[in-house]
Write a structure and sequence with these properties.
about 35% strand; eight-stranded mixed β-sheet; about 220 residues; mainly beta; six-stranded mixed β-sheet
Length: about 220
């Protein structure tokens, strides 16, 4: 499968069949320009302007924004889990939908704007995960310390941080470096890649977590 980073919390996930999903498309007012992209489906973790700009995605995609069990084009299994956008059971910022995708035999999890503390019940619902797309910027989501706790307990093969402050960002969130610093001395591999990576089960040995910091598609 192919993963393209569109910026902020938005990715394009494409299975080998060509079936594709875009997660959390955003409005350009956050300081980044959403790339021109098409997809078969769009997932929306919650209806805030930096996550639900579905009109930006071409191709007349199916829009998924609730708890569902859904098979896209008889190929990609999509499921979702209700969670909270804050640590007060939604009293501050409401609910958040976590989406899971089964593509080419891989389990990919997009945590959206997850804000609640790590709990055994939520971890049990999320597992298993090969590729974890996780917010790390704090303020509106979990911060770098809580993000590390999620990584430690989920133990994915690959972690891709999102929802952090990069060049041009107008949101009051932290840089990705704060998250990476949490892993000093840890048995993880931290690599920087371009805007697109390809992942297969053959790449995963289950022995070590790799953190991949991606660049936004231009």
């Amino acid at each position: 499968m192919k993963i393209e980073y569109l910026g902020h919390s938005s990715f394009k996930l494409t299975e080998s069949t060509g079936t594709s999903v875009v997660t959390d498309p955003y409005d350009d007012s956050i300081g980044y320009r959403m790339p021109s992209v098409s997809a078969d489906a769009v997932t929306v973790s919650h209806h805030h302007y930096d996550h639900d700009a579905v009109a930006k995605v071409k191709g007349d995609p199916v829009v998924l924004d609730s708890e569902i069990g859904f098979t896209l084009k008889d190929s990609v299994d999509i499921s979702s889990i209700k969670s909270f956008h804050d640590d007060s059971r939604g009293k501050k910022r409401g609910e958040n939908i976590i989406f899971k995708f089964r593509m080419d035999g891989l389990d990919v999890c997009h945590l959206g704007d997850l804000g609640e503390d790590c709990s055994s019940d939520l971890i049990e619902m999320i597992l298993p995960v090969n590729v974890l797309l996780i917010p790390v910027g704090g303020n509106y989501t979990i911060d770098s310390k809580m993000a590390k706790e999620y990584v430690d307990r989920i133990m994915p093969d690959i972690v891709i941080p999102m929802h952090y402050r990069a060049k041009g960002c107008k949101l009051d969130i932290d840089k990705v470096d704060d998250f990476l610093d949490e892993f000093d001395g840890e048995n993880v591999c931290i690599v920087e890649e371009g805007s697109c990576i390809e992942v297969s089960r053959d790449d995963l040995d289950g022995g070590q977590t790799t953190i991949i910091v991606m660049e936004q598609v231009q």
